[in-house]
Structures are given as structure tokens and as C-alpha cells.
Specification:
Helices cover 30% and strands 25% of the residues. The protein is α/β, with parallel strands linked by helices. Helix 1 packs parallel to helix 3. InterPro entries: LarA-like (IPR048068), LarA-like_C (IPR043166), LarA-like_N (IPR018657), LarA_C (IPR048520), Ni_dep_LarA (IPR047926).
């Protein structure tokens, strides 16, 4: 008997038709009971901060407050719902609108448009406030804040650091380098210099040449994750006054945490684990994973999260099919293409990455390293010639991908299916 499963692709869907007996597991978030509205969840978190007083009690009249917000690739965090309530808290504490500065935590991402700023603020705030984009290359608007024990020089957005209070907002999901997003990531990389970000992210490589990615730098790991620990130190140097982060499930806010930037984030990570940490009994011959549709598959760069999670469910030497429309192309910068096209072996790519690290290079390297260890196919609008040298096959439809896999490996493949591959982290029992 065949089963049909809808998988998101950009703003549309593709239907996977697969023999039911071949399905090991449809890896979805764990069931959750929604007993509060999204606004009630937001309000409850703000009224019950963790390790901190309420935001309204932390601020004083005439003080300047900088609110750090995500960029449009994190639109799923529903900033338009929670930012008005954060502003209400600030107003309640005596902060005037003109003393509130919104900075978009771009890290090394592209600048946002004015319309994207308005979407992030939402209709209640869009006409009251403007948003400034952080520019990691703007040396005149970066200030030295110290150095971490990992040797990372911390240079941060000057306008943000000149304010009396720094408020971090955003959302928490698994992150392929930092373990989890949210929290400290809105300082590093969010409002950090390019050099700070590169130094931190270079910790993603194993100290031994030829061994590739560091085994402790991975989704869902914190205690031994060097990138996570380095980011925490950098965030501490910025002295955030308050954090508000959401956790989402099934397209809506499922939980929220507020308070001390570390203590609240610790609790938020527990929520993510309870929802998106999914136990599997065995790894599969074939994993079919959707990034989760737009904006999570806006480019190949963003799709790295899906690839890394899919690897956790795939047998060594197995096959992965990743659905990533990638209408904006490779993403990152020219380093992605250079890493993929400019070298013949994975080791050459690793050497180039170690010599001059960048996140875009790492993403390009990781895709190539994955294609070296697994059969990797992308269902994508990308030009197939772009990834040929990396031994990655690009096709236009899911049916085409399946026929290629079945022709090579037969049709009786134990298969895991990941409808929300960017979020769900398979954990082997």
C-alpha cells in the first residue's frame, strides 16, 4: 500500500508517494497541548521572568533601551505578536518611544528592506518605530568589548552598546553550530563584527587536520560545544539586561521564556528538546527531508540546518533527499561557490577553510563533505551545474529524485521522512 505525505517546498508543497512498508518513521515534533493562546503565552512569560525582575521594573525614565530583533529569515518567530507586548512593558517602566532603538541582528546576513522591517515590527509598531540593520563590516559603528577565554575579540554594535539597556528577543530552535539558536546568538553573531563571528565559528573544525567538523559542535549540544560556550562569554561582555525568546510548534508560538539572558535560555532549550528532540530506533537507508518551506529554504545556506539534522537519521553511506527551493540561490556570499567549485577533494576544501575561515565557506564545505560520506540529492530550483563538482545531484521534482535513488539502490529502502527537517533533531535511542 502506498502513502502520500505532503512536504513543504518554498511557498508550495510536493507530495511524496511511498510504499508504506518502507517507512521507518515520519520524524515530527512531539505532541503538544495548546492550552493558552499565543498572546497569553507571551504575556505569562513577561509577567514571570526567570532569574530577573520584570522588564518594567528594570528600566527608568529617560534611559535608552536597545531591542535586538531577528531578521526576516526568522519570520516564523512572530515578532509582530510579541514586540508590542515588550514595548508595553518598557512604556510601563517609563521608557518613551523615542528612547527605544530597534536593531536587526543580521550577523553576516544581507540587509533588510524597509518593508521587511515593517513586517518584523508588525502593524501595531511599524508607524511608531524604525529599525536599524546591524552591519558587521561598519568599523565606525563597532566597539571593543573584550576578549573571550577562547581568544575571540568581541567587537559589538556601538549604537547598541551606548544604550542603558540591551534587550535580546528572538526564538529558540536547534542550531547546527551553536547547539541552539536564540539567547546569546543575538549578541554573537547578531550584533558582532565580521572578524568576531569568523573567529567564533572557526571553532567548528576539529583541531586535527583531515577530521573535518568538530564532533562536539552540533545541534542539541551545549556543555562541550565550544561555539556555544564562546558565544555565552561574548554575550556576557555585552551585559544584556533582559531576554525574551519564543519556542514554536505547528506554525504557532508554543512556549516563551523571559528574564536573565542565560537562565531563561536554559529553560527555553528544555522546551525545544521536549518538542523537537525526536527519538528514533534506528538510522535509515534513505532520509527524505524538507527544510519546512519558505523562509527556511530561501537559499542553500539556510538549508544547512536541514542537512545536518537529516544526517543524524541516515546510515553511513546512505542516501539523503533534501527539499530546498532556494530561490535566492546559494546564499552566504561568493565563498560558498568558491568552496564548491574551486577544489577537487574534501581535504583540499578543509585546508582552504582552515587557512581562511568564513561561515559561507563552512556551509559549502559541509555540503561537499556530506556528499563525500552519503549520496546527496537536492530537489531545488538551483542550477544543477553549480553543485556537480561536489557530487551533489540537483533535480526539479521529488518523483525524479526518487527514481534516481531507486534505480541505483533498489526500491526496498528503509526510509525516514522529515517534514520539518530544519527544526526536528533525530536522537538515536
Amino acid at each position: 500500500m502506498e502513502k502520500n505525505i505532503a512536504l513543504k517546498y518554498g511557498n508550495e508543497e510536493m507530495v511524496l508517494t511511498i510504499a508504506e512498508e518502507n517507512i521507518l518513521q515520519v520524524i515530527k515534533s512531539n505532541p503538544i497541548v495548546f492550552d493558552k493562546s499565543e498572546l497569553e503565552i507571551i504575556q505569562t512569560a513577561l509577567e514571570n521572568p526567570i532569574g530577573s525582575e520584570r522588564l518594567a521594573n528594570l528600566v527608568r525614565e529617560r534611559e535608552r533601551v536597545c531591542v535586538i530583533i531577528p531578521d526576516i529569515t526568522r519570520a516564523w518567530q512572530k515578532t509582530d505578536l510579541y514586540l508590542p507586548l515588550v514595548v508595553e512593558e518598557l512604556n510601563r517602566g517609563g521608557i518613551r518611544d523615542e528612547d527605544i532603538l530597534f536593531i536587526c541582528a543580521l550577523g553576516t546576513h544581507r540587509p533588510q528592506t524597509k518593508e521587511e522591517h515593517r513586517l518584523l515590527l508588525g502593524p501595531k509598531l511599524a508607524d511608531r518605530f524604525q529599525v536599524i540593520d546591524h552591519n558587521c563590516q561598519d568599523q565606525d559603528n563597532l566597539i571593543d568589548c573584550g576578549t573571550t577565554s577562547f581568544g575571540t575579540p568581541v567587537r559589538l554594535n556601538k549604537k547598541a552598546m551606548e544604550c542603558d539597556h540591551l534587550i535580546l528577543t528572538g526564538g529558540i530552535v536547534y542550531h547546527f553550530l551553536a547547539g541552539w539558536s536564540g539567547g546569546k546568538k543575538y549578541v554573537l553573531p547578531g550584533i558582532s563584527s565580521y572578524e568576531t563571528v569568523m573567529k567564533n565559528h572557526a571553532l567548528s573544525l576539529n583541531p586535527i587536520r583531515g577530521l573535518g567538523p568538530h564532533p562536539d559542535v552540533r545541534s542539541g549540544n551545549d556543555d562541550t560545544n565550544l561555539i556555544h560556550l564562546d558565544m555565552l562569554e561574548a554575550a556576557s561582555l555585552a551585559k544584556p539586561a533582559f531576554l525574551f525568546n519564543v519556542v514554536t510548534a505547528e506554525g504557532r508560538i508554543a512556549g516563551a521564556v523571559a528574564g536573565h539572558f542565560k537562565d531563561a535560555h536554559d529553560k527555553g532549550r528544555e522546551l525545544v528538546d521536549a518538542i523537537d528532540g525526536v527519538t528514533i530506533q534506528e538510522k535509515a537507508d534513505l532520509v527524505i527531508a524538507s527544510a519546512g518551506g519558505s523562509p527556511k529554504d530561501v537559499n542553500l545556506y539556510q538549508s544547512i540546518k536541514t542537512l545536518i539534522n537529516a544526517r543524524e537519521a541516515t546510515k553511513p553511506g546512505g542516501t539523503m533527499i533534501i527539499l530546498t527551493e532556494s530561490p535566492e540561490g546559494l546564499g552566504g556570499n561568493a565563498d560558498v561557490q568558491k568552496m564548491i567549485l574551486g577544489y577537487d577533494t574534501v581535504l583540499e576544501r578543509e585546508d582552504a577553510l582552515r587557512a581562511d575561515y568564513s561561515i559561507s565557506k563552512y556551509v559549502g564545505y559541509y555540503f561537499c563533505e556530506s556528499a563525500d560520506k552519503f549520496d546527496l540529492l537536492l530537489v531545488s530550483s538551483l542550477d544543477p551545474d553549480l553543485l556537480k563538482k561536489a557530487n551533489i545531484t540537483i533535480v526539479k521534482t521529488l518523483d525524479e529524485a526518487l527514481e534516481l535513488v531507486y534505480a541505483k539502490r533498489g526500491r526496498n529502502l528503509k526510509t525516514h521522512i522529515m517534514p520539518h527537517g530544519a527544526n526536528t533533531l533525530p536522537r538515536l535511542a
